[in-house]
Amino acid sequence: MALNSEIGGSYMTTEQITAQTKWLGIESAARHLGLSISYIRKLVRTRRIPFTRVGDKVLRFERGALDNWMAAQSCGGEVKYARPN
User: Total structural domains in the chain?
Assistant: First the structure.
C-alpha cells in the first residue's frame, strides 16, 4: 500500500489520489496502463500515444485520452495467427 496523504482533512492512498487526477505523470500513466516507463517513453518518442509536454521535459498524460487510446489498441480479445503455407 502506498503512503497516505492528507487531502481535505481525510487520508487517501496515492492510488486514490491518482484515480481522481485528470493529468498523470509518466510513472502514473505507466502504472495506469500496465506498461513499463521505458515503453511509455518509446511511445512518446514515436508519437504513438497521446501526451502533453509541459516545458522542455515534463510529460503529462490525460487519463481519458489514455483510456481511449488503450481501447483503440485492443484487439477485443480476438487473436489471429498467420498459418504458414
Answer: 1
Distance CA 26, CA 40 (A): 7
| Contact assessment for residue 38 and residue 4, using Cβ atoms and an 8 Å cutoff | no
Flag whether 12 is in a domain. no
- Does residue 29 fall inside a structural domain? yes
The CB density around residue 29, as the number of other CB atoms within 10 Å, is 24
Q: What is the pTM of this model?
A: 0.68
What domain range includes position 64? 20-69
Per-residue tens of pLDDT for the chain, all 85 residues: 444 444 455 676 766 665 677 899 999 999 999 999 999 999 999 999 999 999 888 999 999 999 999 999 887 777 777 777 6
